[in-house]
Amino acid sequence: MTLAEDDGPESGGDDLFAAEYVLGVLAADEREIASRRIDADAAFAHLVDVWEARLSPMADAYPETEPPIRVKEALDRRLFVAEPRAGLWSSLAFWRGLAAASVAALAIYIAEPYLNPPAEPPRLIASLAADGSDVRYLAVYDAARREVGLSHVSGERAAGKDFELWMIEGKNAPVSMGVIPAGQTARMTISPAVQEKLAQGAVLAVSLEPTGGSPTGQPTGPVVAAGDLKSI
User: Fold this and answer.
1) What is the predicted pLDDT for the residue at 212?
2) Which of 21, 53, 196, 202 is the most buried (most CB within 10 A)?
């Protein structure tokens, strides 16, 4: 069953489906379903609006980039090569040449960010869920800020319990990333060692632990949500 079909309020299906639509991680057929529902279902359209507002601050980590100086220099060379001689203004060949140079310079200016894009730290996301559990989180790993942002979609921790976040790399033992703070959203700073492993792709998991987290350094309670990190 896909998230498009799992729309029960107890499972948070529509909420998570809307979030994944906003993040752009749905398969093509599910994205088409979501687009149709936005037009026909006011409640679902509202969920999409809510998630757009909730996730839009992530873009703050990526400031606008000025075009490289070489782009302006190339534009100047093409547009202002030399002073025109007398009679040049009436020359059809001159105007054709100037137009061609202008188009070429504009093409270079537009294409430059795509031909030589600035290097950006990786950003990965994971949808955390598990069969038989109503706990769901959306996780976003932001390498530039060295943190994992969490949005709590559904499911509550029991009294006297905490949710703890873990990183699982292959067959290695889980590594604790800390107790997840209560609330709708949370940000968790990660260590350089964990950051390196997250950049290579890993599984994030949430376990139910005693208040304050696992006393052993390994999960002691059930895993209530998990998911693979994927590139945005």
Assistant:
1) 94
2) 21
Q: Both ends of the chain: CA-CA distance in Å?
A: 23
DSSP calls for 52-109: HHHHGGGGGGS---PPPHHHHHHHHHHH-SSPPPTTGGG-HHHHHHHHHHHHHHHHHH
Q: Buried b vs exposed e over 42-72: b needs ≥16 C-beta within 10 Å?
A: eebeebbeebeeebeebeeeeeeeeeeeebe
- Tokens 């005693």, residue? 210
pLDDT, tens only, 171-207 = 889 999 999 998 888 889 888 888 878 877 788 999 9
Return left, alpha or beta for 61; rule: phi > 0 is left, psi -120 to 50 is alpha, else beta.
alpha
- For residue 83, with 0-12 CB atoms within 10 Å meaning exposed, 13-18 middle and 19 or more buried, which class applies? exposed
pLDDT digits (tens, 9 = 90+) for 70-123: 665 665 666 555 555 545 455 555 555 555 555 555 555 555 555 555 556 667
CA distance 108 to 99: 14
Q: Which residues pair with 204 in a beta bridge?
A: 167, 227
Q: Which residues pair with 118 in a beta bridge?
A: none
β-strand partners of 188: 148
In contact, 112 and 105? CB cutoff 8 Å: no
Instruction: Indicate the fold that domain 120-232 takes in CATH.
Output: Immunoglobulin-like (2.60.40)
Taking a C-beta distance cutoff of 8 angstroms, is the pair 165, 201 a contact? no
pLDDT tens per residue across span 66-78: 666 666 566 566 6
